[in-house]
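Margin note from the TA: students keep mixing up input and output lines. Inputs are the sequences; the output is the structure of the whole complex. Example:
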Amino acid sequence: MSRPVSDWSLDLTVAADSGAPLFRRISQGIIAEIRRGRLRPGERLPGSRTLATTLQVNRNTVLAAYEELAGEGWTEPARASGTFVSRALAQVRPAAARRASRRGRPATPMGFDLERAPDLEQLIPAHLPGLQFSGSVPDLRLAPASELARAFRRALVKQARTVLSYGHPQGHPRLRAALAHMLAGSRGLATVSEDVVVTSGSQMAIDLVSRALLRPGDVVAVEQLGYRPAWLAFRQHGARLLPVPVDTGGMQVEALAALTERTAIRAVYVTPHHQYPTTATLTAARRIALLELARRQRFAVIEDDYDHEFHYDGRPVLPLASADRAGVVVYIGTLAKILAPGVRLGYVVAPRSLLASLTAHRFLIDRQGDHTLEYAVAELLEAGDAQRHARRARRIYQGRRDFLARALRRELADALSFTTPAGGIAIWVTAAPGVDVDRWAARALTHELVIATARGYAFDGRPQPHMRLSFAAFNEEELSEAVRRLRRAL
Amino acid sequence: MSRPVSDWSLDLTVAADSGAPLFRRISQGIIAEIRRGRLRPGERLPGSRTLATTLQVNRNTVLAAYEELAGEGWTEPARASGTFVSRALAQVRPAAARRASRRGRPATPMGFDLERAPDLEQLIPAHLPGLQFSGSVPDLRLAPASELARAFRRALVKQARTVLSYGHPQGHPRLRAALAHMLAGSRGLATVSEDVVVTSGSQMAIDLVSRALLRPGDVVAVEQLGYRPAWLAFRQHGARLLPVPVDTGGMQVEALAALTERTAIRAVYVTPHHQYPTTATLTAARRIALLELARRQRFAVIEDDYDHEFHYDGRPVLPLASADRAGVVVYIGTLAKILAPGVRLGYVVAPRSLLASLTAHRFLIDRQGDHTLEYAVAELLEAGDAQRHARRARRIYQGRRDFLARALRRELADALSFTTPAGGIAIWVTAAPGVDVDRWAARALTHELVIATARGYAFDGRPQPHMRLSFAAFNEEELSEAVRRLRRAL
């Protein structure tokens, strides 16, 4: 009744690549035979000794495989007369599995239909080799890695019982308190810890707000030059986007006002501090007009204050949220720039009923954040380590901004012009008439220099005579080299 | 022309609670006056000396406040004749702000309308004091906290440049490889690192799959006794849920088959290993029938294998995914049980086109996970530390399961009955006729014992004569005490 064991060896060979233990590969080979219909309900398996000899393995290995088959119900409970394929499997059909390749890993088919997914290529540009003048990251060499490691260790050792258990999706109370204190002290927000929801970076803040706020068909106004990952998050939640022009005073709130006369909008997404990507600061008059417009028309102002700390000339401008008396501003911040992009912590400050909704949505997204990390970063904020790091980085970046501005004026005055930005980590330059920035960027690639041009930020994707040159991640030597390559590529 | 400064002091007093530095509170007080229309465009502010004297502050503090006002455009650029409110603010209206309370923090109004949010109360039960017999957490006292802290430190110190920068939303390659190896070695999944998407816990896996798979109106079949946070995530993405009964052999796949004859379903969500909450293992015959049904009807089988490691009698049953030849299974796992719930790492294994979609959706949700943590846990898996911890926990939990089973049989044989579960972290008990479990649970609260009854897991929310008693987080002394209190509450 037992089948020639040579039949098995094929599948056992196939499974040799899988890294699974031997007994498992044997039981899997047997299961495959059952599924193919070559071993039928009620049939007897070879004796363990016989199979062990044929396969040249230890008998205990075969016994372990048989034990597993019994445990999973593939075979009948052990009997003296041998091991039998379970009769309960009578409905097994010689499966479609036969179609699958039996050698090597078959290409997994797809057994159900799928919606078109967001285009990842559009979200994450291919990595191009060379100096990344296009980056939007701070200098990781400055990141307070050891301080963070120490704080993380302290959190795990001293607070293991709380940070390793389930916690509240609004965020660890200690981090919320530290953030509220920081926002009150340096950004004019009258916050206490209940006014803060912690998120996994500013992208989650944007996604959460979209989930809580938007219904399919809602209109969200965005900056005509702006931050694409936010746009895609809004669209993912059914929003229709309408672009608003930007100039050296930030978003043209007058144009937004005109737009809202034609179409009711649900929200506007805006980067008032250092407009992304142009680095322009929204003027005081437009700030007031925007808040007033939102109050009258009852739309939300989603204020993304992604790099508040990096302001070099005078003090940072206070957020719109600090002047919001009507409860229209949803304020989003991040610790990605102050610490490092890999530290996935952001936050939202908003009217409390929105915060309650965000908290519930966060629970459904990932239940809660990493409370060990949240506790550790709270300690860094309380001790002032994070602020010290930010001050040091600001000094260094200011020097780099000035260095790059001088180098550009010296080397490329004929080809581009710019206003030195009061803050941010990049200089937004305008090309001289006749200079095609996209061709320039293409040539720069052959000199191993990666540049971001305006069209990558443009709502309509059309060329504009601007480039964004990021200075924060480069020291002076690297900046000089970048400008040299830029010159050569002209 | 300057106003009596006494007018200001009111607002400065208000802001005293905010924790903001003094100069900021002064500038905010002035901004508030401008916004209220009491200081008009073109008006002159008091001289810095005068204001400093009146407020009894250092003159530099007032200068800092004025500098800030100028930087933000509230006042005209500095002139010898004094500081003037900016004429560009001509459109300021005596704002609605006047309505806001000027003493203490006003309750923030809500300047826009909001959809009804998911009910957080339903998601996170109120914390009730006492022994948590209702928990679904492992014993945090066993968590490998120091190993994790050391690995995190190594990742930060050795890999700062990569883990602190932006990385790929699919997950750190090293963790994906370690997970693929683990799944191949112990769960019969023929995976390589490309077959894995890392998530922030299993809840994010469920949410991501919902986002990628579901359209409003899609039907998802769920277990009649089951995991509510998953249901709410499906509903959040527009799904209509239909319940399928469960028994001691897990989900009644026969009932599912009958259901699919009446209604096309998009997916079924199932916990085959230790059914949640009943701990039943899905029988081999039902496994085969489920895969075959899904293949024929082209629906997805979302397999949540949340506590694979904790199987005590015989070896863990292999996941449905290990037998999936048709590409219908979406396999979800988590490290929350193997390490600790606070370690927010889960994963999905599925056909690659779904994985690509999950990765893109993850980018929109929070860009990427915490790659420092992912790298650190990859090391723990590679070194076998995580597996060693899981083996140790399994031994201990098996002892606790047996201890609780004995204690229940000794103390409460008259009131309840059960089958000792082959795995999981809880015993699912059935009350004797005439015993009302919900009343029992209510009385237990007065004895400081928190119990979970079946109705909390029931799709229809109706009472059933069952309770779930969690043994993993209690040592023998605590288990004895819990059973004593349970007895007393009867």
